[in-house]
Write a structure and sequence with these properties.
The protein is α+β, with helices and mostly antiparallel strands. It contains three helices and eleven strands.
C-alpha cells in the first residue's frame, strides 16, 4: 500500500515537472518573438496561420479541370467533294435454243462475266443534326451530290462449236448522282469528333449491253436504267474550327446489290429468234472518299 502511494506521488511529480518545462519553453518562445511575456494569445494566432496557409496551398495544388469539349449539339449545313471508286460485276448469259449450242451457252456465260471500274468524282451538299451528351455524340445526316463514273468492257470469244466464227459482248455501267441518309454516332476528343455512320444509299444505274457475232450476223441488246436503293456504311473525323465551322474527312462504302433484266430480241440473218433468251445483270459497289466543310447553327 505504501509502495503504491509512493509510485503515485512520483508519477504526479514527473507530470508536474513536464508541464512546467513545456510552459517555460512556450513562454521563452513568446518572449523571443515579441519581447512581451504576455503575448501568448498573439503567438497562438500566428501559430494558426501556417496551418491555414498549408490548407490553402494544398487546395491550390490540385490540377485545374480540363477545358470542356467543343459543343456539337445543333443543326448544320455544308458541302463536300472527293473521289468515288466503283466496282461493278456485269453478267450476260443465254439459254440453249434454236440458235445456240450447249458449248456456245457456256462460252457466252464465261465471256459475259466482266469486271468494270466506274471511277469518278463526287461532290454536293449535306445537312444534319447532332446531340452531344458528355463526350458522346449522336445525330443524323443526309446528303445529295454527283457520283460520276462510267466504264465499258468488251470480250470476244470463238464459238467452240464453229471454228472461224466468234461472238462479242460489250457491257457498260454509268452513274450520275448519289443520295444518302444516315445516323451518326461517335465520341469527342478535344475539338475532334470521331464517328461511324450507316444507312440508306440511292443512285441511278445505267447499264447497257450489246451482243454480236460473225456466225449469222446476230445482234442482241439489253439495258437497265433504274433508280436503285442500297445500304452504306463508313466513318470519319470531323474537327471544329472555331465555334461555328468544322472540317471533315469521310469514307463511305455503298452496296446497291444485283439488278437483272432479260431480253428476247436476238436477230440473225434468218430473222428474229425469240427463243434465244438472254439474262443480264449488274452488281454495283462504290467506295467514296470525300472531304467537307460544315457551318453549325
Amino acid at each position: 500500500m505504501l509502495q503504491s502511494k509512493y509510485i503515485m506521488k512520483k508519477t504526479l511529480a514527473v507530470l508536474a515537472l513536464g508541464f512546467a518545462v513545456l510552459t517555460s519553453a512556450s513562454s521563452y518562445r513568446v518572449l523571443a518573438q515579441t519581447g512581451n511575456p504576455f503575448a501568448s494569445s498573439t503567438v497562438a494566432k500566428l501559430d494558426a496561420k501556417p496551418a491555414a496557409s498549408t490548407s490553402t496551398v494544398g487546395s491550390s495544388s490540385a490540377l485545374p479541370a480540363p477545358p470542356p469539349s467543343s459543343n456539337w449539339t445543333g443543326f448544320y449545313v455544308g458541302g463536300f467533294a472527293g473521289a468515288n471508286f466503283g466496282r461493278a460485276t456485269a453478267n450476260t448469259s443465254a439459254v440453249v435454243g434454236n440458235y445456240f449450242a450447249n458449248t456456245s451457252v457456256v462460252a457466252i456465260s464465261t465471256t459475259g462475266t466482266q469486271k468494270l471500274t466506274p471511277n469518278g468524282f463526287n461532290g454536293g451538299v449535306e445537312a444534319g443534326y447532332n446531340h452531344q451528351s458528355g463526350n458522346f455524340v449522336v445525330g443524323a445526316e443526309a446528303d445529295f451530290g454527283s457520283l460520276t463514273g462510267s466504264k465499258t468492257a468488251t470480250g470476244t470469244t470463238t464459238y467452240p462449236c464453229c471454228p472461224g466464227t466468234a461472238f462479242t459482248i460489250t457491257q457498260s455501267v454509268k452513274t450520275n448522282w448519289l443520295f444518302t441518309a444516315r445516323p451518326r454516332a461517335g465520341f469527342t476528343a478535344g475539338s475532334a469528333l470521331f464517328y461511324v455512320t450507316g444507312g440508306v444509299a440511292v443512285t441511278n444505274i445505267n447499264y447497257q449491253e450489246r451482243f454480236t457475232d460473225t456466225f449469222a450476223a446476230a445482234t442482241e441488246s439489253g439495258a437497265i436504267k433504274k433508280t436503285r436503293a442500297g445500304y452504306t456504311a463508313g466513318g470519319g473525323i470531323e474537327y471544329k474550327v472555331g465555334s461555328k465551322w468544322s472540317i471533315k474527312g469521310e469514307y463511305l462504302y455503298a452496296d446497291f446489290r444485283r439488278v437483272s433484266t432479260t431480253s428476247t430480241n436476238l436477230t440473225t440473218t434468218g430473222g428474229p429468234s425469240p427463243t434465244a433468251v438472254f439474262t443480264h445483270s449488274i452488281y454495283l459497289k462504290e467506295h467514296v472518299v470525300r472531304f467537307g466543310i460544315n457551318y453549325h447553327f
